[in-house]
Amino acid sequence: MTALHLRPASRADPLPVLAAAHRITDDLRDGLAGTRARRAAHRLRRLFGFPGLGLTDLSGALLWSGRPGPDDAVATVLEGVLHSEEPGSAPDVLVLPLHVHDELAGALLVVGDVRDAVAGQAADLVVQALERGRLEASAEQAAQAELRALRAEMSPHFVYNALTVIASLVRSDPDRARDLMLDFADYTRYSLARHGEYTVVAEEFRAIETYLALQRAVLGERLRVQVRVAPEILAVAVPYLVLEPLVENAIRHGIEPRSGTGLVQVHGQAEGNDCVIFVEDDGVGMDPKRAADILAGRVGEDDPAGLGLANVDRRLRDVYGAWYGLTVETETGAGTRVIVRVPRFQPGVLP
Amino acid sequence: MTGLRVLAVDDLPPALDELCRMLGEAPEVGEVVGAGDALKALKLLQADRFDAVFLDISMPGLDGLELASLLAKLSEPPVIVFVTAHDGHAVTAYGIGAVDYLLKPVRAERLSAALAKVTRMATPSGRPTPDAMAALPVESGGRTRYVRRDDVLFVEAHGDYVRLHTRGGVHLVRMPISRLEEYWEGTGFSRVHRGFLLAVGAVLELRSDTAGGLLAHTEAGDVPVSRRHARDLRDRLLEAAQHGQLGPGAR
Questions:
Q1: What was the ipTM of the complex prediction?
Q2: DSSP string of B112-181?
């Protein structure tokens, strides 16, 4: 770190200097307008031994540590620096622009008899800290955006099948059509929900009940369903739309490709500190190798159900760690059982 | 009671028709008046007394939330229930003092739950105190014993009698289920079916099958849950789970 060169005396023990630089970086993580920027200013001044030091973002509002510079002179020079983006000076004060990723973010003011090079080192330290903070913030945003993108989308296949059935029932059985329309409203409302990342198991079960009511209307006698849930897991927080893609997958691969009836079972229970939910079908099953490929993310764009499974697995592991996520038990011709395992209590995961 | 006088407000004519129709079919409601915008609603409310207003939120001009804030300043404000297509307003709605918040399209069972709340607001008190029946006397072999409410897992209607199902067996008591429901309503029991009153904390598992029927599984057997009551039971189970009030002894 650049700060090491400043005070030769520190060479004997670089740890305090490194620690101070580290704390400054940390304090500037939220930027110059962040709540800890003032503390960063104090630490920076002490580290470099300046008589006075000021920090400002683009608003020009100054945070001072130690002896402030003369008000009038500083205001004029600062305005000039924020406009020209070039360093400026008044008697006893140096004003250095702070460029974060080549974009002006604010200025550093150094008061006292300080060499330009030393003031420059201080500005470099601030800039590096700000750049790092911004990178971290954008990495976090990217991760969140990715999670959002992984969230299940309504399957067009299902949406239009359901609407077709309802359209037909409007003539033959208006009451049933109305019930299904209300279910369809609930289904879309849940799928389009954008409030927060997490919901509770109770809502996930309600969503699959609605989904299954619609699927029963579409598939009729071919689909048999059993849903069982133990009340003690109802309040467990989980990401939105974890179960529905699994049930959709069970119907798509378990029931639809064959003639005759199929049974889909969903069963949720507590196992010690874990909440475990099974989604099971007695359908065509698959090669266990394919299941492994899906969970490893080796799945093609042309396989929406496989993608759905892989996405749920990714989201669960992102939230709860590699230990959790999906397990798939299957064999060709022997049905498929997908097991969701999540902790019943996870710090930071709140509906 | 003569029935509630209710004002329905929505700027979309088909939505207003539907809301008026559903309100008109509800047994609690005596009279329904519809208004196509907030101004018309305001005039009606100034000219006449209403027990409740069912109010759409997003309307041109004065919206539902603004109208509700105005109504709150009346000396005898009507009870307000919001009806909206978008569920982003719930927090604001309750802040204004609405008693309920319905999502469009409205389900009949949700509407009747809202009307129950309205009725409770419009006719305060008058119901029995919850602890009047903490134990019920049962006759067995010429002796009178008491069955504690906390030991009852569910109640089954049996003509003018009820059968109290406990872990230790079934006890017959002469009382209509609807009366027992009134006594036990605030004590963790829920009427989940015309013929069944269920201790919410006694549910070990909810089971549903192909026909869409729902069963609540308890240590003393399975209790059918009617479609109309399924939503309410799920809500109450979630609430109980959130407050750690599940399982034996938690009540």
A1: 0.73
A2: HHHHHHHHHHHS-S-S--GGGGSEEEEEETTEEEEEEGGGEEEEEEETTEEEEEETTEEEEEES-HHHHH
